[in-house]
Structure formats: structure tokens, C-alpha cells
Amino acid sequence: MNGQSDQPFTVRANGEIDLDTAPALRRALAAALESHREVVLDLSEVTFMDCAGLGTLVQARNQADRSGGRLVLRGAGRRVVRLLKLTGLHRRLAVEPWPSNPDRRSLTVEPDRRTLTGHRSRRPLGRRENRDDASMGGVPGRSPGAR
Questions:
Q1: What pLDDT digit, counting tens, does each position of 59-74 carry?
Q2: Residue 48 CB-half CA count within 13 A
């Protein structure tokens, strides 16, 4: 715990946490956990998370456990909470809603200092192209039957 700050540190992710963006989130969480006892991951702007994102959360939790720190997930939307429950990770990770009257000084950080901003999706989520292509909704940008 040498040199770890007692002040909670917020990492803010937005958009999609997937194979492309998970490595940047992993690095941001690792750096934050090295210097702070408590790291809050703000998921309020996350629209999608896949297994790469889940793996990143588990790795960060394991790092926090090894160092005696704490990782807290806050503001997770219904899709992310559902994914955590389906995988059973809601029992392993500290998932908290935003407080009804949050102390913004301890939960947010200046965007140019300590915030991770992932990429935003270029396509709206919840709408699948080529619904009749396959049971999983097809591949965006391809027509049914195209190879």
C-alpha cells in the first residue's frame, strides 16, 4: 500500500467496452489501482460490454484484492447489470447505483486529468441490421447470403 491515496479515484468509461476498447480500460484501471486504495468505475455512459470487458473487470478486481484496494462499479445500466447477473459476477464485483444525492467532488474527475473515454458506437445499439440473416442478427453492413 506504499504511496496509495485514500481519496477515491474515478475512471469514467463510455460507449462500448469490447475487444477494441478493453485494453485501454484495463491500463487505466491498473494505473488507478496502483495509486489509489479505492477506484470507482463510472459505467453510466456504457452502452455495451462483451466478454473482453468482463475480463477487464475481473482482472481489475483481482489486482485490487492483491493490493488491499477496492474496485467499485457505479452507474451500470440495465444491459451491463444483466450481463453481470447472467455471468454471476454481480456476486464477485461491488456494483452500486449512483447515490441519490452524490458528493460530486469525490465521484467525478476533470475530463482532461483522470478520465478514460472510450469510443462511441457509430451505429445505434438495439437495432440489428439484416435480422433475417441469422439468429444472432447477421453481420452489420453485409446483405443476407453475402460472403
A1: 999 999 999 999 999 9
A2: 17
